[in-house]
Amino acid sequence: MAETPYSIFNSRTPDDIHREIQEVYLENARPWVIGYSGGKDSTTALQLVWYALAELPEEERKYPVYVISSDTLVETPVIVNYITGTLERLEAVAREQKMPFQTDIVRPKIDDTFWVNLIGRGYPAPGPHFRWCTDRMKIRPANKFVLDRVAEHGEVIMVLGVRRGESATRDQVLSLHNIQNSLLLQHSTLPNAFVYAPIVDFSLNDVWFYLLNVPSPWNNDNKELITLYRNSNAQGECPLVVDETTPSCGNSRFGCWTCTVVTKDKAMEGLIDSGEDWMLPLLEFRDFLAKTQDPKQKPKTREHRRRNGQITILNNKLVHGPYTLKFCQELLKELLNVQKLVRKEGPDPNIELITDAELEEIRKIWRTERQDWEDAVPQIYAEIVGDRDWIVDDTISFDEKDKKILTAICDKKGVPVTLVSKLLDTEQQMDGMSRRAKIQSRIDKIFHEDWRSEEEARNELNKLMNNDSS
Question: Domain 8-232 is of which CATH architecture?
Answer without folding.
Answer: 3-Layer(aba) Sandwich (3.40)
